[in-house]
Write a sequence for this structure.
């Protein structure tokens, strides 16, 4: 075992010396390699971060949301309907929710107006999302003026700004009292946007959903699990898109690596010839060349992954943000929580290192099996 | 097709495809090799063949290096995909989401052990001056190459055929009391039989390994026992080790062991078992080699492999004993 390790150490020493001697040549390949790892890792880290964020958000969502459908479209739900599902076995609580969208011409974006479940602002007062407040230049105490459904201006006093930690959901959020909400949108008392159900036993969610549908056939029931899956699917799809584009890059990189590995300089050929004349066999040269690739890959992977880590978690992933986050006018600013996932590192390593190995293997073998006599005669 | 966790699936497909490509090339070469190999003739063709053996052995080494992370990644991906299938709660549900998941896993396992065996033969072969195992080596390669192709094809079929709306079954229905089939029968194996059987087989295997190390005998028996021990250990995990770790008498799933709730016990147990079994099989193989030119080298390699195998299997036994001792379950 020891002699084996010693042999490998010797080979690594030779390889490092070789790499250092041909700095310029290897630097170009290394740069391309680092760039490739950086791009792929950025996409993967950012997509995973978004997925985790969405999952955390949904943890507090109600198990079931019931929406009334009229002619297949979402409609307001009368309060009597809430009572009809409240006494279903397995339902812990039913709650009518009030929320809606409002196009704000001043910002050119859709705002989400919502009546919070508890601690609603007093009449004439609102709580604002941080991004919206920034865009409209508002601070607590200022007045937010919006045109209601009839075109009449409504003035609200900004009471507080929402915690910027939840900016992913609260970027465009305006929280207001129930009376203000109904007056603003012209929604009569006794009507709700939809209903949120808390289910006692999460395992029964599916059964409760079926019962709700049996009692209120003109509704759509959305479970939290479904929402979670939808978000996951959306982010997977958005992650898959740039990955597909990058796979072209992967192929290009493999070509570059193949070209670099097969184009041995005369000097290198002579070197291999001399080594073999000194008693190295093809296996030794092959091992040396494979070490060269392994060291280069390791270096490139560590550099690229670290850069991607900084790019995503500290710089906010400016390169891929639009594709992965979606196309919203009000961009929330938020930092993703850093996380290390070994399976992602393994899969990224497979994705980047394997094409390199595959592309260089045959040229490396060719180089290793060169005939010393033939090379030295050249 | 779902690309859930996109990068994982892509990495697996890329790795298995390249692996299949490499081994297919190696397999074609093996065919030519078996037909045209004449070491006593110094012709151009013969020298070209000799050169190519370096390429082929590198390919198989890389393939083996790849197969363990791929196996781990595949089970992990299946585990991570479980929330996407109604009814799935761990890797079993995802693997059973279509017909190709479990066969793909089985082929990966067999491929791993065969590649390990090939490497043992290869190492010995290059040590003997007359390359006594050359033909055996290339015959084995003819088995390895189609397996790699099958593995890649199964993975493509599996990931390509995944549909989220399929209702799959939880491990409870595969390893539960209501199920039928081999797996269910394994889980129904009473602990009173499975436990002594497991420890007896492990003890016999370790004893054979120790005899090989000390006396240099019983090598082939050790190889056979290591293989037998693998099967018995898997059955024991399903029958009583897993329920003890979960502390639930009816939860027999060997895949839930990989989850965080159970302290990642599977990630400790399986690698030890796989490593021990691969090394044990290799030791048996090396001890069985009777070539004249290897009469020094073969026992030496057998002993080295037996050391690894005994260490890994003993650690595996210790880990299992620890889990059993810690468990509050009385069956």
């Amino acid at each position: 075992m020891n002699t084996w390790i010693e042999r490998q150490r010797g080979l690594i020493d030779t390889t490092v010396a070789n790499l250092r001697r041909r700095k310029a040549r290897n630097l170009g390949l290394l740069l391309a390699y680092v760039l490739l790892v950086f791009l792929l890792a950025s996409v993967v880290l950012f997509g995973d971060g978004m997925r985790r964020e969405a999952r955390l958000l949904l943890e507090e969502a109600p198990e079931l949301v019931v929406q009334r459908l009229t002619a297949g479209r979402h409609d307001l739900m009368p309060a009597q309907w809430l009572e009809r599902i409240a006494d279903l076995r397995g339902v812990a609580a039913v709650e009518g929710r009030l929320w809606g969208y409002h196009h704000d011409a001043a910002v050119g974006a859709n705002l989400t107006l919502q009546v919070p479940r508890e601690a609603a602002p007093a009449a004439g007062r609102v709580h604002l999302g941080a991004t919206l407040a920034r865009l409209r230049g508002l601070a607590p105490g200022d007045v937010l003026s919006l045109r209601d459904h009839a075109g009449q201006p409504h003035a609200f006093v900004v009471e507080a700004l929402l915690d910027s930690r939840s900016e992913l959901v609260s970027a465009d959020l305006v929280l207001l009292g129930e009376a203000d909400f109904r007056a603003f949108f012209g929604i009569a008392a006794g009507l709700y946007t939809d209903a949120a159900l808390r289910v006692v036993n999460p395992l029964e969610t599916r059964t409760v959903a079926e019962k709700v549908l049996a009692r209120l056939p003109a509704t759509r029931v959305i479970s939290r699990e479904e929402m979670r899956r939808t978000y996951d699917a959306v982010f997977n799809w958005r992650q898959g898109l740039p990955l597909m584009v990058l796979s072209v890059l992967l192929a290009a990189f493999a070509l570059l690596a193949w070209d670099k590995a097969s184009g041995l300089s005369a000097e290198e050929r002579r070197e291999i010839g001399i080594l073999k004349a000194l008693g190295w066999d093809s296996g030794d040269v092959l091992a040396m060349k494979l070490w060269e690739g392994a060291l280069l890959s390791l270096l490139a992977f560590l550099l690229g992954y670290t850069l991607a880590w900084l790019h995503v978690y500290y710089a906010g992933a400016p390169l891929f943000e639009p594709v992965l986050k979606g196309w919203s006018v009000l961009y929330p600013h938020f930092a993703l929580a850093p996380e290390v996932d070994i399976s992602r590192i393994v899969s990224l390593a497979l994705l980047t290192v394997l094409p390199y190995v595959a592309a260089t293997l045959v040229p490396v073998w060719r180089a290793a099996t060169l005939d010393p006599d033939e090379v030295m005669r050249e | 097709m779902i690309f859930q966790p996109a990068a994982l699936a892509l990495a697996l497909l890329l790795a298995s495809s390249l692996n299949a490509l490499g081994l297919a090339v190696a397999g074609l070469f093996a065919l030519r090799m078996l037909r045209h190999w004449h070491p006593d003739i110094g012709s151009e063709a013969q020298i070209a063949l000799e050169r190519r053996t370096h390429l082929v052995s590198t390919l198989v080494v890389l393939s083996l290096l790849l197969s363990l992370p791929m196996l781990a990644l595949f089970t992990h991906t299946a585990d991570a995909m479980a929330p996407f299938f109604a009814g799935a709660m761990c890797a079993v549900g995802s693997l059973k989401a279509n017909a190709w998941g479990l066969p793909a896993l089985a082929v990966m396992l067999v491929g791993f052990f065969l590649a390990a065996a090939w490497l043992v033969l290869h190492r010995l072969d290059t040590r003997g001056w007359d390359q006594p195992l050359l033909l055996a080596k290339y015959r084995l390669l003819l088995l390895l190459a189609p397996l790699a192709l099958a593995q890649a094809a199964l993975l493509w079929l599996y990931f390509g055929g995944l549909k989220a709306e399929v209702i799959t079954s939880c491990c409870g229905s595969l390893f539960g009391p209501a199920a039928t089939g081999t797996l269910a029968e394994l889980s129904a194996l009473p602990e009173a039989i499975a436990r002594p059987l497991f420890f007896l087989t492990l003890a016999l295997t370790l004893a054979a390994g120790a005899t090989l190390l000390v006396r240099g005998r019983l090598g082939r028996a050790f190889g056979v026992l290591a293989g037998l021990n693998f099967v018995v250990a898997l059955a024991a995990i399903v029958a009583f080790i897993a329920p003890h770790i979960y502390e639930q008498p009816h939860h027999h799933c060997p895949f839930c062991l990989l989850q965080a709730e159970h302290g990642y016990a599977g990630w400790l147990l399986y690698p030890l078992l796989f490593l021990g079994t691969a090394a044990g099989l290799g030791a048996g193989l090396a001890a069985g080699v009777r070539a004249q030119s290897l009469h020094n080298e073969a026992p030496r390699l057998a002993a080295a492999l037996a050391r690894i195998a005994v260490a890994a299997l003993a650690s595996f036994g210790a880990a299992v004993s620890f889990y059993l001792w810690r468990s509050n379950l009385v069956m």
